[in-house]
Amino acid sequence: MARSDRSPLLLAGLLAAAGAAHLARPAAFDRIVPASLPGRARTWTYASGAVELALAAGVALPRTRRTAALATAAFFVGVFPANVKMAVDWRDRPAPLRTAAIGRLPLQLPLVLWARNVARNGERQP
After folding, report:
1. pLDDT tens digits, one per residue of 79-88
2. Distance (Å, rounded) from C-alpha 41 to C-alpha 91?
3. What is the pTM of this model?
4. What are the Cα distances from residue 60, in Å, to 11, 13, 63, 82, 125?
């Protein structure tokens, strides 16, 4: 299997793991839901996990890969405010946690580009 063939499956695996984590341990994610969003944080956490699982399935299947990968790129942009909130909220935490929260911020760009690349390569699928 070529590297480009594995990329969508790795992205799908990342999304599936994140989605499962949101559903299995929601309290950890509730804390980073921006307060400006309407409704309960738990609802947003569960919705985010469900979306990640759906995106994972879409990216894994060649027939839906392009659309799902584009939606994944948009999703990664959309959750960026939660990562910013986490970095701000964790500014007084111990250095390793603070560093991890801040380190997540620049990682969003490679995730967006990865999803966009999977979408672009999905166009070439038969």
Report:
1. 898 889 889 9
2. 21
3. 0.86
4. 8, 8, 9, 26, 13
